[in-house]
Design a protein that fits this description.
Elements: E1 2-6, E2 13-17, E3 25-27, E4 33-35, H1 38-49, H2 54-71, E5 76-77, H3 78-92, H4 94-104, H5 110-120
Parallel strand pairs: 3-5
Antiparallel strand pairs: 1-2, 3-4
Helix pairs in contact: 1-2, 1-4, 2-3, 3-4, 4-5
C-alpha cells in the first residue's frame, strides 16, 4: 500500500510503502514446516518461464499468494501451492507449465510426461 505522509515538524511530504505480513506457514512434502515465502514462488515461476518480463512473474506470484490466503488453512501444503502455480502457468505458457510440472510432480518417466502433455493439449 502506498501512502503520502507529512512530517509534523518540518512539513515535508514523503511517500511510504507498506506490505501486510501474515503468519502463514507451509507444510513441505518431507513433513517440515517453514514460513511462507512469496519470493520462492516468484523464483520458481521465473525459472519455468525463462526470460520474461518481471511484471508477469509478479502478477502470477500475487495471484498464487491470494489463492493461498483465500484457502485459510495454516499450514498450507506445497502440493496446493504447486497446483495454483500450475493453473496460472497453464493460462499463460504451456511450455512453462510442463517445465514446472516436471519438477513439481517429480516426472521422470517419459510416459508420465506424455500424460501431462495430454492434459494441456
Amino acid at each position: 500500500m502506498r501512502r503520502r505522509r507529512e512530517c509534523a515538524k518540518c512539513k515535508n511530504r514523503f511517500t511510504t510503502y507498506e506490505k501486510a505480513e501474515f503468519q502463514l506457514t507451509v507444510l513441505k512434502k518431507d513433513g517440515r514446516i517453514q514460513p511462507f515465502d512469496s519470493q520462492k514462488i516468484a523464483h520458481s515461476i521465473q525459472r519455468a518461464l525463462g526470460k520474461v518480463d518481471s511484471t508477469i512473474v509478479n502478477t502470477i506470484s500475487l495471484k498464487v499468494e491470494r489463492s493461498v490466503l483465500k484457502k485459510k488453512i495454516n499450514p498450507v501444503k506445497t502440493v496446493y501451492i504447486g497446483k495454483c502455480v500450475l493453473d496460472e502457468l497453464k493460462k499463460i505458457d504451456k511450455i512453462a507449465y510442463l517445465r514446472f510440472a516436471s519438477v513439481h510432480k517429480d516426472i521422470e518417466d517419459p510416459k508420465m510426461f506424455e500424460k501431462e502433455l495430454q492434459t494441456i493439449v
